[in-house]
Amino acid sequence: MTEALRVVRPSGYLLTFTDWRQLPVTTDAVQCGGWVWRGLIAWDKSEGARAPHTGYFRHQCEYVVWATHGVTRKSAHGGPLPGCFRFPVRQADKFHLTGKPTALMRELVKVVPPGALIADPFMGSGTTGVAALMEGLRFVGNEHDRAIFAGARERIENHRNGHQHP
């Protein structure tokens, strides 16, 4: 988190997904990294989300921990943005084990100003990159696994060339 803070401009945003199991450690890591923790955004995956078994609550929600690099400036391009999103996971739009819906990522990237650069250090299948391009934003991403990186790169390039998936 400290390294992410180093490369993000003052007043820039951090948005990171977590589930209920890692929520406490994620928020602690964000704050220990020097970020100003601003809150949580809930992502309701809908009733199609995995239910472990009877007697348990459905694992229907993930959270986006959001923080800023210092002060938060008033937006000149819109807002306030929703604090909760409801987007089901659709297999046709899931390209990674922990893949997020493109529609959800399109909503989340709207927090940054037009033309801004979005960096995703754990880009998985590149959904953030596709969403950024769809919203007219610039994107740079990293992925540790070479095969997953190659797939993300191909997906982003296909989008750039007009061969979009959902």
Q: Radius of gyration from the CA trace?
A: 16 Å
Shape: globular
| Percentage of residues in DSSP E strands | 15-25%
Strands of the largest sheet, in order across it?
Answer: 1-3-2-4
* Total strands: 6
Mean pLDDT over the residues: 91
Helical proportion, percent range: 25-40%
SSE-based structural type: alpha/beta
Q: What's the number of helices?
A: 5
**N/C terminus separation:** 31 Å
Strand/helix succession: HEHEEEHEHEH
Main sheet characteristics: 4 strands, mixed
Poorly predicted parts: none
Highlighted features:
166 residues; alpha/beta; two-stranded parallel sheet
How does this model look, in words?
The protein is of the alpha/beta class. The model has no long low-confidence stretch (mean pLDDT 91). The protein is 28% helix and 20% strand. The chain has a four-stranded mixed beta sheet, covered by helices on one side. A two-stranded parallel ribbon has the order 5-6.
Short description:
This protein has 166 residues and is of the alpha/beta class. Helices cover 28% and strands 20% of the residues.
Record the SSE blueprint:
Blueprint: H1 2-7, E1 13-18, H2 23-32, E2 36-44, E3 61-68, E4 84-86, H3 102-108, E5 117-120, H4 127-134, E6 138-141, H5 146-160
Parallel strand pairs: 2-4, 5-6
Antiparallel strand pairs: 1-3, 2-3
